Amino acid sequence: MACTRRKFMKSTAQATFAGTASAGFFLSGCNKKDSSNKVKLGVSGFSADAYRKLIDELGFTDKTGIEVEVVLRPKTTNELLMQMASSIQAGTSPYDILDFEDSIAMSLSRAGWLAPLDDLISQDVWDDFTPALMKMTKDWDQYKGQTFRIHHNFELCYWWYRKDWFDSKGIAVPKTWDDVSAMGKVFTDKAAGIWASEEGLIKNCNLSVYLEWITRQAGGNPYQAGPELQAALRYIHDLMFKHDVMNPSCIQKNYDQQNNDYIADRVAFMRQWPFFYDVTRQHKKWFNEDKVVCGLPPVGPAGAASSTYACGWGWGIPKTAPRYDQACELLKFLISVENSPKLLKYSNWFLNARHSVLNAAGEDGLVKYLKMYLDAGIVTTRPFHSRRYTEAVSKIENIASAYLTNQITLADAMKSTRKKMDLL
Hints:
By secondary structure, the chain is α/β, with parallel strands linked by helices. The protein has helices at 5-19, 23-29, 48-57, 60-64, 77-89, 102-111, 123-127, 131-141, 163-169, 177-181, 184-187, 206-217, 227-241, 255-263, 275-281, 324-335, 340-343, 355-361, 367-376, 389-404, 410-423, and strands spanning 39-43, 68-72, 97-100, 142-143, 146-147, 150-151, 155-156, 158-161, 195-197, 267-272, 293-295, 308-311, 314-316, 379-381. The termini are close together.
């Protein structure tokens, strides 16, 4: 069933009021009259400084006469959706241009709240997209034949491992699911708190990330509730309880805890997002290159081409943006072939799979791993639910968590997942 605007706003409001005490703040503040002539660019806090610097140093205002104010958007999906629902219902938007993630992209595009961008995208920009980025764009940034978001980063699930540990034991890095399953006997020492692998599997999107990754390796999409999801769930459960590869307590851990365990010398290998590259290098007394090596992920039943997936953040323009025309000019400036590679100077947040960016990035730092994965042909797109992604994530996480904590059987988990996905 299609998610109408009225139903979407109602369900979003209910989810936000249930999930955050700050919802009232956004409701009380988002409808105030905005007298500023500055284009409001809504970004997350961790990227704000880079945005302010690049807007200033690349000379957008000098070239166009348009001033830009970088403003902070809410951190969580529910908070941002609540803010957008309330303001758009009032015929306005707190942002003229917004930097947002995949889950937001699905919700806002299906609600019809984003302006089409195709007229703003020149052919030289399209030609700058690699096949991998174009595939992600078609899956995640286009709806009903229109483009509603342009990615500025291209984030992969990378596979990190302790080369020093593998070298000291004289064993090869695992290349398949079966190889991974054998690593519990090699590395896990429960008494010392050391496990072969780890993951942040706490609910609220962390669990779904890993489940999407493993199900992709199995050849499917978890939100289709097919045999690939069943194989993924069984594999994860076996890693925890049969092979002693992964600590069952991962189901209660977030990414910070996962990363801390790795840096505390308790993990031999794991999947993690690219931000882990910078996290490890902040621990200067601990860090050396052999402790944090990025390799190709182990191959699952679907073969090497489905070893990992790409996701990312990008820019979109709300249909009710108060300064719509000026926002269009800012978007064209940011996505241009001339400026896109320049953004990387300010942050890895702007590392993506455009030809101009990859050519300008060189071979140092994280880019060498991105190129390695692209050259290996192992990158696919992130699985999604085509209409109600955020709700689908919540439902599938609840069921998977129950199974991975032995509260229900695999058969019951699959039956419940199929039923809930059908209802969506």
